[in-house]
Every structure is written in structure tokens, then in C-alpha cells.
């Protein structure tokens, strides 16, 4: 079974505004609400790709209830631990001449809630997949993903981590199966700005030296690169298309990679399915569907 954990789910409020002006009253042209947060998006895209998963994490308040309801409607099984105080985030995604985002901090999670999560994770079995994705509320220590990996280290799991800065770096000694920073997040770890693919490979290799098994680095409109544990290198520009809504593109890439890997245990298939799932989400209002992903793979000869 695949499990995703989202510590900090959100309702994504995606608004488009023509010629947004700071300091003025602006009116939306379109507005829409989706369930969001990285693990949740991974679960939703996996569902679209024909793979069931179990979404775990924490939720609070009326926004939390709505996230669970929307997931249910999507057909994703979830078992979120309810936090009594505060509300799950509403993350604002503003589409105007440029895309801007305001992501909230999320409610505090108490020791007792973490204990409940550990009880759920103790049910994982050898061969299961665990996706730890997204930010954690500000008040939490950034070794929580590491602690989870340490706790589960006696089981044979495939663990995927999509996080930034110390939250990501701390897990490396526990050999995550896959990490997926984007090029800016990879650069941030080393205090450099990375735009060029060769440079990205160099720094991805440094994360591999520190313990990551496979390193997938997304580069938005410039595609992605992958360094595998058996020494293969893949790089590609994305398929062609018009960007409509790139919220969730990175999460779709993780889901696509996972689906591709599970279907054929082949890194090439995983890489291209990840790449095309990311683009399929970016090219449509909603998250990628299987047909859209396969059509894009076909368009690049994969
Ligand atoms: N502008 C775009 N054009 C084509 N594909 C895109 C675009 N933005 C994202 N994608 C696809 O989605 C993947 C992940 O996007 P990216 O923005 O790098 O992730 P994240 O959301 O994690 O920052 C990219 O590698 C690419 O395949
Ligand atoms: O947990 P974080 O890092 O604040 O990110 C949460 C946001 O990222 C998303 O999961 C989208 O992520 P990507 O665009 O990187 O795929 C949104 O749904 C959510 O609002």
C-alpha cells in the first residue's frame, strides 16, 4: 500500500486577477478551491493514474473537514488526525501577469497527535511506500521526518521525501528511496543559485553522497533531471504545451514517478511519467489525468 503523510494540508484558493495591482482593491476573474498540500496532491494524482493510496496527516477546523470531504469525493481514502485548535490552512494562489502564492503556517500539532501518527505508521508493512511531503507547522522541529524514518528503519519501505532545507537534509542519512527538490530548493541547501542542468547534476550528486538513493530535481519549464542509485542519469525538457495552472506540478511529478516505478520497476519509465504528470497538471486547470499523462508521453516519444 502507498501512504502519504501531509502534516500541513490546505485548501488552495486559486484566483485569477487581470493586471493585479498591489495596494488596490482587485476583483477576481475566476476563483476555485481545491484540496491541497503535497501529500494530498500526490494521493489525488495517484488516484487519477489508477493507484490507490491512503492519505494520512493532521487537519483542523472547518477547512480540515472540507479537505477530508473533497478527498472523499475524489475517491481517496484518508485518515487524518484531528487537531483541536486552529484551522487547516487556506493557501492563496494568485494568477495574474505572474503567479504568486501565500502559504499559511498551519495549526500547531501536539505530542499526543504525533503519537497517534506513529501508531498509524506502525501498521506499515515491508514493501509499503511512504510519502512524506510538504512543510510542517512553524512550531515543529525540523527533524520530524528524520525521526519518522529512524522509527521505521527496521522495515523495508520505499520512503519518498519532498521537503525543503533542514527538513529534507536531515533525512538523508536514513537513505530515502527518492527525494524531489526543485532546482531552487536544491541550490538553497548549498547556498547557490542553480539554473544549468550540469550544475544541477553536480549538486544532486552531493545529496546522493549524503545518503539519498534517487534524486529527482524538477526545473519547472526547463524540465527535470534524475540521478539513480544504479548510476543512471536522465535529463529532459518538458513536453510542449500551454501553462494553465502549475500549482501541484511538483506533487504530480512525484505521483507520476511513483506510478511509473511501481508499474514497471524501471527508472526511465518513472522519470518520463513523472515529467509528463508534472506538465499535464501545469497544462490543465485541474491535476493530471492518466490520459493526459500518456498523451504527453506519446508526444515526446516515450
Ligand atoms: N511551465 C511549465 N512547462 C512545462 N512543464 C512544467 C512547467 N512547470 C512545471 N512543469 C512540469 O512539472 C514538473 C515539476 O514542476 P516544478 O515547478 O519544478 O515543481 P515544484 O512545484 O515542486 O516547484 C517539471 O519538472 C515539469 O515537468
Ligand atoms: O507545504 P508547503 O510547502 O507550504 O506547500 C503547500 C502547497 O504546495 C502544494 O502542495 C503544491 O505544491 P507543488 O506546486 O510544489 O506541487 C499546494 O497544494 C499547497 O498549497
TrEMBL record:
The keyword Transferase applies. Coiled coil: none annotated. Gene3D superfamilies: 3.40.1190.20. GO terms for molecular function: 1-phosphofructokinase activity. It catalyses: D-tagatofuranose 6-phosphate + ATP = D-tagatofuranose 1,6-bisphosphate + ADP + H(+); beta-D-fructose 1-phosphate + ATP = beta-D-fructose 1,6-bisphosphate + ADP + H(+). Belongs to the carbohydrate kinase PfkB family. LacC subfamily. Belongs to the carbohydrate kinase pfkB family. PANTHER family: 1-PHOSPHOFRUCTOKINASE, 1-PHOSPHOFRUCTOKINASE-RELATED. This is Tagatose-6-phosphate kinase. It comes from Roseburia lenta.
Amino acid at each position: 500500500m502507498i501512504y502519504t503523510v501531509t502534516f500541513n494540508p490546505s485548501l488552495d484558493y486559486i484566483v485569477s486577477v487581470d493586471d493585479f495591482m498591489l495596494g488596490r482593491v482587485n476583483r477576481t476573474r475566476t476563483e476555485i478551491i481545491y484540496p491541497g498540500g503535497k501529500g494530498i496532491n500526490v494521493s489525488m494524482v495517484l488516484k487519477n493514474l489508477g493507484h490507490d493510496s491512503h492519505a494520512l496527516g493532521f487537519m483542523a477546523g472547518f477547512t480540515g473537514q472540507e479537505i477530508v470531504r473533497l478527498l472523499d469525493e475524489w475517491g481517496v481514502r484518508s485518515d487524518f488526525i484531528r487537531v483541536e485548535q486552529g484551522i487547516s490552512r487556506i493557501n492563496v494562489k494568485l494568477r495574474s501577469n505572474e503567479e504568486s502564492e501565500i502559504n499559511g503556517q498551519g495549526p500547531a500539532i501536539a505530542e499526543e497527535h504525533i503519537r497517534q501518527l506513529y501508531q498509524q505508521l506502525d501498521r506499515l508493512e515491508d514493501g509499503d511506500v511512504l510519502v512524506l511531503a510538504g512543510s510542517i507547522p512553524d512550531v515543529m522541529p525540523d527533524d520530524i521526518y528524520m525521526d519518522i524514518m529512524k522509527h521505521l528503519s527496521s522495515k523495508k519501505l520505499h520512503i519518498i521525501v519532498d521537503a525543503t532545507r533542514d527538513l529534507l537534509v536531515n533525512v538523508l542519512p536514513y537513505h530515502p528511496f527518492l527525494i524531489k527538490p526543485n532546482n531552487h530548493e536544491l541550490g538553497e541547501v548549498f547556498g547557490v543559485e542553480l539554473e544549468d542542468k550540469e550544475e544541477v547534476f553536480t549538486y544532486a550528486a552531493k545529496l546522493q553522497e549524503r545518503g539519498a538513493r534517487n534524486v529527482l530535481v524538477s526545473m519547472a519549464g526547463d524540465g527535470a533531471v534524475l540521478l539513480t542509485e544504479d548510476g543512471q542519469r536522465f535529463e529532459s525538457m518538458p513536453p510542449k504545451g500551454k501553462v494553465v495552472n502549475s500549482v501541484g506540478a511538483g506533487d504530480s511529478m512525484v505521483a507520476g514517478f511513483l506510478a511509473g516505478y511501481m508499474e514497471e520497476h524501471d527508472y526511465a519509465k518513472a522519470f518520463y511519467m513523472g515529467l509528463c504528470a508534472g506538465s499535464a497538471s501545469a497544462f490543465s486547470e485541474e491535476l493530471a489525468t492518466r490520459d493526459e499523462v500518456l498523451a504527453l508521453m506519446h508526444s515526446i516519444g516515450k
